[in-house]
Specification:
- With 846 residues, the protein is of the alpha/beta class.
- Helix content is 38%, strand content 18%.
- It has 31 helices and 41 strands.
- The strands form twelve sheets. The protein has a seven-stranded mixed beta sheet, sandwiched between helices. It has a five-stranded parallel beta sheet with strand order 8-11-12-13-14. A four-stranded mixed beta sheet has the order 28-27-29-31, covered by helices on one side.
- Helix 18 runs parallel beside helix 22.
- The chain is globular, with a radius of gyration of 29 Å.
- 46% of the residues are buried.
Length: 846
């Protein structure tokens, strides 16, 4: 038997299909004599359409993200109904104002070409003569899947067409089967077992009447929908996906130059919070909310084995929520592994700072914590189980540990009021240094959510979203069963207040790259640094003992009367008027967030946040702090041959007492030295003298490499550094070093021009390496376009030697030539030196 599995547009080009990867593994195991192919038509379509109409990554992403407007599904409706102008004008009228004019014009062009693409794709699929073609359909894939399925049955009626995926859950799957007779089978629910049982029935020519959840047709063509299973698959039944086809096709497609590929893994299914308190607007878990997670050892072994097999270190975890037990099992194991992962995970927003820090240490650098709103009253309406102050604490603590946060601001809940938003919006300027929302969105009513299932919660008159009637030629009753998104009368705040919220978030996003607020806790006092445009002050010291105690107590949300009691219990002689006055002053300075009768301070620990920011249009956040002034002239900054260290990189704050940390030996052990400085909380370092290249002599070569190695290591850890560079006669070679933190000066002809270009193009991780299991990955952006280099047979001893500079004589001439040609190793006189920094932190996207 020959089975072809297809992943249609608009699936993301960055990620393989988890569903099809799992099915390929299950079918291969169950039918070892069968042929199983996976066609990544999302990648194929990107190549095909780019040649004919041009399609950028941003445009593809817009299509992928536009599911709730119907834009992406409408594009392929022309192929479904074999009409290149299918309902053009109706759709344009429907999305007027919701889709930008340039994207509507692009959509019309893609819409007209869609029938040609589907015909091309189906011709290539059928040329391989499959017996069964299975489609996974989730969100915006539906019309493209149906278009291809229709043409397959028209051209080859003997081929069995099977649909599965999120769009096939519950009534949706039965409606798809009834409404489109060219679909032979629809698998509803989890398909690992039921799909293989269907294949066995097809092989044996037996009846599928007892396969739970399956929709099928009898000999007369009558549609049947078997009852769905009452219980989800146990975690032990979840299999490791096979992504071989995806990574091969991604490397050969245009996507390879547009986006870094990611692994998609799952450690659990369902939602443990939703089992207890189903968030009122969420429909993501469909028919099965029950939480099941893999054993910790199994998940870690599976994840590391997949990174080794596919040589990919970027990982997206498909779970709806992190299993909290993993904090004591999976997270420590990943932290100990010699594997520099970049993992994204969904978590709950009430996690503590030390827990967030443990995630970062394990390689989990991006989280989606389900923040959704900052009003405690609105969050209660959602049944989120957190407060506004807890959500702000999450944003603050994420900044402290350099953890990227992805979230959206939702509104439109029944019983929310203007006041719920008024007080929060007024406080946004105090939060401009924290990760802003990606956007502001009125909630959509999703199938399977409490708002859909329980009209008494406020949405009683639901209709299939208007775009379904434009895309599909079906009766409204069938659309109601097939739809995932529903229209209802707007609830909650007025359009005027919603517009104010949107503008306030837009301002937040604009100010975020420039805004910074941090603290350095010196035990007897706390020094704050502020660069947020909305507040005029720059540095502040909190040094009164009771005020310092109050600031530390407000690390956690606290009511005013509780704060007073705790201060008095700590031996501080203060009264309610003292506390009220202090809180009023701190509110004016933008240090607090208040909600629901509680306050929490909004000041992250200093972690050079402005170096770690990357704005959404795809570039570094260029901040004034990169424009170095003269060398520091603090009392401690006299002539020295040692490294000088500070707790803060801001020049004004460095002049404050207690910020200077002292001196450290400047030795040829930079990798170890810098790691120790990071552990002590160092944020800024000054080298004792210039780095001079091209002088000649083994002693000067070693001194130059010592300086370069310190700068490389400091850069990789996100520390700023004062240093001066003399490139000798190689001024044109500065781009090789342009991934290093910019020096204060560059000696030589055109040195000032080189320095200005260096400063304006510098960003974190411009050229860096990561360790994998059995390989090293280098990402290089020094020369514009991204270059990804995989070193598959890495001699760890040689790489370790190159990190601190190794004698040329230790390598064969051919090895030396290969090193230098790669642009990843530089020759400094008699030494070879490794250029890329090890990537230990990732930019926070704003």
């Amino acid at each position: 038997m020959h089975i072809t599995l297809v992943n249609m547009p608009w699936a993301s080009i960055d990620f393989p299909s988890l569903a099809l990867g799992i099915l390929k593994r299950r079918v291969t195991d169950a039918f070892p004599d069968s042929r199983v192919d996976v066609v990544h038509a999302n990648l194929d379509y990107l190549d095909w359409i780019t040649e004919r109409a041009g399609l950028t990554r941003d445009e593809y992403t817009f299509c992928w993200d536009s599911y709730f407007t119907g834009y992406s599904e409408w594009i392929f409706s022309s192929a479904l109904y074999d009409d290149p102008r299918w309902r053009n004008d109706e759709f344009a009228d429907l999305v007027a104002g919701a889709v930008p004019g340039d994207m509507l014009a692009k959509g019309r062009h893609l819409h007209a070409l869609a029938p040609e693409y589907i015909a091309s794709l189906v011709g290539r699929i059928l040329a391989d003569r499959p017996d069964v073609v299975g489609f996974s359909t989730t969100f915006a894939q539906n019309s493209a899947v149906l278009a291809a399925a229709r043409l397959i049955k028209k051209a080859a009626p003997e081929v069995r067409v099977v649909l599965g995926g999120g769009n096939c859950d519950g009534p949706q799957g039965a409606a798809l089967h009834r409404g489109f007779p060219f679909v032979d089978y629809v698998n509803r629910g989890e398909g690992e077992v039921s799909f293989t049982r269907l294949l066995a029935c097809l092989r044996d020519e037996s009846s599928p009447a007892d396969i739970p959840g399956l929709c099928w047709r009898d000999a007369d063509g009558t549609a049947h929908a078997n009852a769905m299973s009452a219980a989800p698959l146990p975690a032990s039944a979840l299999v490791t996906p096979d992504y071989t086809d995806y990574f091969e096709q991604h490397a050969a497609s245009r996507a390879g130059a547009m986006a870094e590929p990611h692994l998609v893994v799952e450690s659990s299914r369902g939602c443990w919070w939703g089992q207890k308190h189903h968030c009122t607007f969420c429909g993501l878990n469909g028919s099965f909310m029950e939480f099941r997670s893999k054993s910790p050892d199994r998940f870690v072994d599976e994840l590391l084995a997949m990174t080794e097999r596919y040589r990919v270190l970027n990982v997206a975890v498909a779970d709806n929520i992190l299993d909290m037990a993993y904090l004591r099992s999976v997270v420590p194991r990943l932290a100990e592994a010699e594997c520099d992962l970049r993992v994204s995970y969904e978590i709950k927003s009430n996690m503590r700072r030390e827990q967030l820090a443990s995630l970062v240490a394990a390689g989990i650098h991006y989280v989606q914590p389900g923040i959704e709103n900052l009003s405690g009253r609105v969050l209660k309406l959602m049944d989120k189980g957190v407060t506004g102050c807890q959500n702000v604490r999450m944003l603050r603590d994420a900044e402290s540990v350099s953890l990227g946060v992805v979230w959206n601001y939702l509104f439109g809940f029944p019983d929310e009021t203007e006041e719920d938003y008024e007080s929060v919006i007024d406080q946004f300027p105090s939060l401009h240094h924290l990760a802003p929302p990606n956007g502001v969105t009125r909630i959509a009513i999703e199938r399977f959510s409490p708002y859909f299932n329980r009209p008494e919660l406020g949405f009683g008159d639901l209709r299939p979203a208007a775009h379904y009637a434009v895309i599909y030629d079906l009766p409204e009753a069938e659309l109601r069963d097939m739809a995932y998104v529903f229209d209802a009368a707007h609830r909650g705040i007025s359009a005027t207040q919603a517009e104010r919220l949107e503008k306030a978030v837009e301002t937040w996003r604009h100010e975020f790259p420039r805004g910074r607020l941090t603290q350095c806790d010196l035990t007897d006092s706390v020094v704050l640094t502020n660069t947020r445009p909305g507040f005029a002050w720059r540095t502040l010291r909190i040094e009164e003992p009771w005020e310092t105690a109050a600031f530390r107590l407000l690390d956690q949300p606290c009511a005013d009367d509780v704060l007073l009691k705790k201060l008095r219990a700590g031996g501080h002689d203060v009264d309610a008027e003292d506390v009220a006055g202090l809180l009023s002053r701190w509110r004016t300075l933008g240090l607090l967030f208040e909600d629901g009768g509680q306050s929490v301070h909004v000041v992250p620990y200093a972690a050079n946040q402005d170096l770690m920011r990357w704005v959404t249009h795809g570039g570094p956040a260029l901040v004034p702090a990169l424009r170095h002034g003269p060398a520091d002239r603090s009392p401690e900054a006299g002539a020295t041959t040692a490294l000088r260290c500070w707790r803060e990189r801001d020049e004004q704050t460095r002049a404050r007492d207690g910020i200077f940390m002292g001196e450290e030996p400047y030795e040829d052990t930079a990798v170890r030295t810098v790691a120790e400085l990071v552990a002590r909380g160092t944020q800024h370092v000054a080298l004792p003298g210039p780095v001079v290249l091209g002088r000649g002599g083994s002693g000067s070569d070693r001194r130059a490499v010592r300086g370069l190695t310190h700068v490389r290591e400091l850069t990789g850890h996100g520390l700023s550094v004062d240093w001066d560079l003399d490139l000798g006669g190689e001024i044109g070679a500065w781009r090789l070093f342009s991934h290093l933190y910019p020096p204060r000066s560059v000696a030589g002809p055109d040195g000032d021009a080189v320095l200005e270009q260096w400063r304006t193009t510098f960003h974190m991780n411009k050229c860096g390496y990561r360790r994998g299991v059995g390989f090293v990955e280098v990402t290089d952006l020094r020369h514009g376009a991204q270059r990804r280099v995989l070193m598959r047979k890495v001699n760890k001893e040689k790489l370790a030697a190159l990190l601190d500079g190794a004698p040329v004589s230790d390598f064969r001439p051919r090895e030396t030539e290969a090193f230098l040609t790669s642009g990843l190793v530089h020759r400094v006189g008699s030494l070879l030196w490794w250029l890329p920094s090890r990537i230990t932190r990732w930019p926070v996207v704003g």
